[in-house]
Amino acid sequence: MTDVKMLDSLYSHIMKVIVATGVAPHYTEIASELRLSVETARKSLNDLMGPGKMAGYWLVPGTDIIGSFAPFNNVPTHYRITIDGETKWWGQ
Q1: What pLDDT does residue 76 have?
Q2: What total number of domains does the chain contain?
Q3: Does pTM top 0.85 for this prediction?
């Protein structure tokens, strides 16, 4: 199980990337940015938001790819989010 400090860093990093780019990072990108091995990043991501973890946060079924990270969705939905005239996010 990933320690709480790492989970906090992981959560913060993912949220910052989504806000900045409109797209959730892949665990290989997380590994590079947080200076982790790819496998550690993948396992930590699953510890943070795998099945049975946090509501509103899920991985695309059968993968290790972020599907939703509340209040954002990484998979297109009918809910577009526009901030200061910029539309690059999908809502849950």
Answers
A1: 92
A2: 1
A3: yes
